[in-house]
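Colleagues,

For the teaching module next term, I've prepared a clean inverse folding example: a structure given as tokens, and then the sequence designed for it. I'd like students to try predicting residues themselves before seeing the answer, so please don't circulate the second half yet.
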């Protein structure tokens, strides 16, 4: 089975809308819009790993696997199964085979 066939979860990539008023002051609370969608694989992180790992996995709920050409960055959020997630890290594997994103639940 190819990697692409394992990507069975549709996720929405959200981008924050930033606007400014007549004085040029930036309004960061303008909202979030869907910039794109992607097929990915949401893999839950065990509570044990999340609690015991005081570094990389602390507070992480999911690891998201995506194709390497997916347009995503730290300013985006992920919407999956009616829950929103903040991107904690984005890593590309050494063979440029896939992206791995660690996600924390947005409160």
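(Answer key — instructors only)
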């Amino acid at each position: 089975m190819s990697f692409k066939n394992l990507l069975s979860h549709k996720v929405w990539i959200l981008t924050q809308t930033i606007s400014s008023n007549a004085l040029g002051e930036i309004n960061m609370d303008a909202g979030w819009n869907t910039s794109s969608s992607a097929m990915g694989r949401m893999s839950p992180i065990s509570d044990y790993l999340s609690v015991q790992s005081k570094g990389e996995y602390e507070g992480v709920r999911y690891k998201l696997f995506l194709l390497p050409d997916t347009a995503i960055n730290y300013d985006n959020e992920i919407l999956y199964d009616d829950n929103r997630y903040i991107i904690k890290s984005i890593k590309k594997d050494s063979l440029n085979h896939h992206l791995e994103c660690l996600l924390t639940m947005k409160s």
